Amino acid sequence: MSTTTPHRFRIADLATRKPTRFSIQPDAATRTALATELDILEIRKLRLDGEIVPAGDRDWVLNADLGATVVQPCVVTLNPVVTRLDEPVSRTYVADFIEPEAAEVEMPEDDTIDPIPAVLDLEAVMAEALSLALPAFPRATGVELGDAVYTQDGVAPMTDEDAKPFAGLGALKAKLESKDE
To answer: Could you tell me which residues come within 8 angstroms of residue 96 by beta carbon, excluding any fewer than 6 positions away?
Structure first.
């Protein structure tokens, strides 16, 4: 991986009075491996720039900017779709993090809070941020999904308009009005 700064930091070694700045740009091999892992066609560019700042006596805050150019298959045509991503990345690492113990727990309101790791792997943070920023249903410009209509022979297909809760009342009203005339 070619980076302008290391991508792993031991939290115990970070400066406690000033920010630790970083800039990571993975090389082609790393981008290709990450594209394969994320099941996308290509990552043309990828960069994570930011800083890790002490917060209070024992906590840390990571603030960064993720920039990426990715290629994904169109959900309709499977043709390549190029997307430019520019996303803020924020994580708070707290010393007093309490892991939920119940079998079923609600997701926390702030999902950017994590326990302090012994080693902070910025490459993993970048991969997670990229996976969350990717368009779920990339679509090529001008491509419409269209409607799929299925029915038995001789039966009129049901449309989205028919499925609306008051669509039947409108048809009944029209039928009653035509009887009155």
So the answer is: 58
